[in-house]
Amino acid sequence: MWETVEDAYVYAFPLVLMDATETSATNTEEAVTGKAPVNQFIHSVALANAQFRNVVTPNVDTIYSQVWYDLSEEPMVYELPETDRFCKVQVLDGWTNTAAVLDKAGAYAITLSTWEGELPEGVTRIDVPTSMAWSITRIVLSGEEDLPNVYAIQEKMKLMPLSDYISGDTYEPPRGSYSEENDYIPVDKVLSMDPITFFNKANELMVKNPPAAADKEMLEKIAAVNIGPGMEFDTSVLTGDVAENWKTMLTEVRLKLIKEGQKFSKKLGQWDYFGEPIGDFNTEYAYRALVALAGLGANTVEVALYPKIEQDADGNTLTGEKSYILHFESYPQVLEGGFWSVTAYGDDDFLIDNPIDRYCINDRSGLQANDDGSVDIILSEDAPKDTTNWLPVGAGGFHLFMRIYTPDMDALETWMAPTITEIYPSNVN
After folding, report:
1. Residue 417 — φ and ψ, nearest 5°?
2. Is pLDDT at 429 greater than 50 in this prediction?
3. Cis ω for the linkage preceding 37 (within 30 of 0)
4. Residue 187 lies in a domain
5. Number of helical (H) and strand (E) elements in the chain, helices listed first
6. Measured distance CA(39)–CA(66) in Å, rounded
7. Is the separation of the CB atoms in 396 and 320 below 8 Å?
8. What's the confidence (pLDDT) of residue 425?
9. How many CA atoms, within 13 angstroms, populate the side-chain half-sphere of residue 117?
10. Domain of 375, in residue numbers
11. To 10 degrees, the CA torsion angle through 395, 64, 86, 331?
12. Residues 6 or more apart from 278 whose CB is under 8 A from it?
């Protein structure tokens, strides 16, 4: 039965991680930096830095405005203002599938799919199949001096229950609650759960966040060990040394997920990115779990690509013990309103602490070009004399993620992706 237990774990992992992330992010009495009660904006006021630990591989060239929704009572109306820049709202259901991407100004009712009611004229219904939902609004930023303009956009955003929207009364969001035990790193919390805690939490969550109709076959399989909406996990199926077997299973699962993910991996030069059906996974449960583990809240490919590179041009693993040149013949190809960036992460998938608080380079970085128009970025632990084109990578292992928002998929087919070549430290300065 351990095989069934493993399948159930992979199936339920994104749902349990979403819940743990919500619990952590809403663990506050009122909106503060990085947290807000349910159904309230979590407005970031600065870009993520090396101390940020809420989500792995955080984006550092957009400011986030997030909401964790409880849609069980009534829809929430989100008013998105006009903007002068890339500003898109990704709405995810409790299983990490993208329910919608909002990219035009207007009023949207984020609504549980089973809700029956009338919406006011001019309000667009956005159906979500689960009571738990998460919206991530990404607003592109052009340096610290651009922050006031982003704040002005955030201040114009509005969010309120449908009933208050209809009444027109001034809406004061209710206070939340705080518990010290809910201050944790979500992915660490979930990975540390024992099987009884994990599966009973999954069973509880499936009641208000029902599995999709396409999950029928999987649900029939895992019901054999009492995993499903409202069930109580059957611990008798856990044979042998339960703690040791569970630990082994978690280790093996991660390796299996990585292997399974290769089926969906696409090449962009030496870089690899996850292709469809990322962000809307249907029954690709292993892929869904892998993406949740590696980067919760990933967009669908038409919104963004996330190419990753872990090796240099010679096939050697990247390490801060060496220095490199990241060479662009030309910049990533995007459609109108799109943008790109390259961010460095440590082996733990978090940002790398560095003396100038620089975590990425992008199309707003003011990079110096070579005479032929190409651009070289220095990847090193120690700062070169001229830091204009320097991306600090720390002392340990690291990898890079390129983000290409609103990609021009046709142009990218012939685009030459940047290469990474080792250089001698003496040549960095």
Report:
1. -70, 155
2. no
3. no
4. no
5. 9, 20
6. 10
7. yes
8. 53
9. 20
10. 307-427
11. 10
12. 264, 287, 291, 298, 299, 300, 301
Angle, in degrees to the nearest 10, between helices 2-25 and 285-295:
40
Mean pLDDT (the chain, rounded): 95
Residues near 23 by beta carbon (within 8 Å), at least 6 away in sequence: 182, 186
Burial class of residue 233, CB neighbours in 10 A (0-12, 13-18, 19+): buried
Whole-angstrom distance, CA of residue 221 vs CA of residue 218: 5
Residue 86: inside a domain: yes
3-state secondary structure of 398: strand
Q: What is the spatial distance between Cα 329 and Cα 416, in angstroms, rounded to a whole number? A: 7
pTM for the structure as a whole: 0.88
Q: What tens digit of pLDDT does each residue of 74-102 get?
A: 999 999 999 999 999 999 999 999 999 99
For residue 8, pLDDT beyond 90: yes
pLDDT, tens digit, 9 for 90 and up, residues 283-306: 999 999 999 998 899 999 999 999
Cα separation, 363 vs 313, whole angstroms: 23
Contacts of 115 (CB under 8 A, 6+ apart): 71, 74, 75
The DSSP output letter for 263 is G
At residue 55, does pLDDT exceed 80? no
Percent of the chain with pLDDT over 90: 91
Give residue 47's pLDDT band: very low, low, confident or very high (50, 70, 90): confident
User: What does the pLDDT average to over 164-193?
Assistant: 96
- Residue 176 resides in a domain: no
Instruction: Report how far residue 5's alpha carbon sits from residue 226's, in angstroms, rounded to the nearest whole number.
Output: 10
CA distance 126 to 124: 6
Residue 138 lies in a domain: yes
Q: What's the number of domains the chain is made of? A: 3
Confidence of residue 142 (pLDDT cuts 50, 70, 90): confident
